[in-house]
Amino acid sequence: MSSPSTSGTYGLASTSAAGIASAPALPYLPRLPRSYRPPIGLVGCGGISEYHLRAYRALGLDVVALCDVDAGRAEKRRAEFYPGATVYSDYQALLRHRGLEVVDLALHPRERAVAIEAALRAGKHVLSQKPFVLDLDDGARLADLAEAQRVRLAVNQNGRWAPHFAYLMAALRAGVIGELASADFTLQWDHTWTAGTPFESIHHLVLFDFGIHWFDLAAELTRGRRPSRITASVARASFQKPRPPMLAQVAIEFPDAQVRLAFNGHVLHGQEDRTVLCGSAGTLRSAGPSLSEQAVTVHTVAGTATAALEGTWFTNGFQGTMAELLCAIEENREPSHSGRNNLDSLALCFAALASADTGAPQIPGSVRRVAAH
Ligand SMILES: NC(=O)c1ccc[n+]([C@@H]2O[C@H](COP(=O)([O-])OP(=O)(O)OC[C@H]3O[C@@H](n4cnc5c(N)ncnc54)[C@H](O)[C@@H]3O)[C@@H](O)[C@H]2O)c1
């Protein structure tokens, strides 16, 4: 990819002999701390922990303790990734592990809030899986507690570091397409693997457990603007077997912008994931058959350019969330994906769930909690 132009604006690079310009070089890859590599403990060794540990091992991070109520799961992860780690079946015991500084909580939200509080009270920095909390006031209280304890609390919104989303956000921040007017996210994918797992008992599986990534992206893309209202609905496809509605749509309205989300989680053939951001000076588009196979194009007065990006949703995502937390600790600043920052994402999500449940538009921030899922 080309370097930013010296004029201070991000123009498209010169067109190649083949007539295809490359998009501006922008910082989209996870940034590592200079030297901070603290002892890390992971609580919850279920399905997603494999990707956490894979990412941490690739970065050379030091995972010293693993915990699961089902100790066999923690032992399995130890054998796969960190043979020197100590295994615990009680996270209170893990919190007493000598020298432990950072705790990664890969639990479901119902068990997680109390574990976050215990870790913060034990003076540990915390990376919480998403969705962060079920109650915005609990989330604010945990963010206050982290401040009082002088530790950092971050949320594992790995989507922000997926290469295509990280690039789109960097391009928007750099002014490549000017002022954002609309964002459209359309996803047709196969979420039927959740049948028979604990995820099937989550009614708003698509809008809450999965959709939180897109509410988080919507909140990031529109930061500084105040959403006026949200309308959402869900439906079950006539042929679907999993219990949660697999169809969902959301409209987030601002006085001067609109964000739309369209989800179909029951697409077995011809899947596509597409994001289109339109601004005063151009359009950013990313599309592909999955979240890890995306082609990004930049359209401005200079023409159309493509961005060749490295990495995938899970690899860059889980490296990015932990690396940003470690950078924030090292630099003594709030992480960009802090618990407090996440409350704006959850406010959008909770309002959408209430709209889907009541059929009425909702004002983000007015819906403070969601039923335990
Ligand atoms: N960021 C992402 O892209 C992403 C992807 C998948 C899952 N997740 C989230 O991660 C969380 C976990 O998902 P998962 O797929 O790994 O679930 P899972 O059900 O496979 O694993 C959860 C694990 O936690 C353990 N556990 C439960 N209570 C515990 C306790 N008190 N102490 C220690 N261990 C305990 C369980 O035994 C289980 O092994 C969920 O909130 C999910 O939404 C995030």
Textual characterization of the structure:
With about 375 residues, the chain is an alpha/beta fold. The chain folds into two domains: about 40-155, NAD(P)-binding Rossmann-like Domain (Rossmann fold), CATH 3.40.50; about 160-310 and about 335-360, Dihydrodipicolinate Reductase, domain 2 (2-Layer Sandwich), CATH 3.30.360.10. It has ten helices and 15 strands. The protein has helices at about 50-60, 70-80, 90-95, 110-120, 135-150, 165-175, 205-210, 210-220, 315-330, 340-360; strands at about 20, 40-45, 60-65, 85-90, 100-105, 125-130, 155, 180-190, 230-235, 245-255, 255-265, 270-280, 280-290, 295-300, 305. The strands form two sheets. It has a nine-stranded mixed β-sheet. The chain has a six-stranded parallel β-sheet with strand order 4-3-2-5-6-7, with helices on both faces. Helix 4 packs parallel to helix 5. The longest helix is centred in the C-terminal third of the chain and has 20 residues, at about 340-360. The radius of gyration is 21 Å and the shape is globular. The termini are far apart. Mean pLDDT is about 95; it is low at about 1-20. Bound molecules: nicotinamide-adenine-dinucleotide. Nicotinamide-adenine-dinucleotide (NAD) binds next to helix 4.
Could you give a quick summary of the protein structure above?
This protein is an alpha/beta fold. 32% of the residues lie in helices and 24% in strands. The longest helix is centred in the C-terminal third of the chain and has 20 residues, at 339-358.
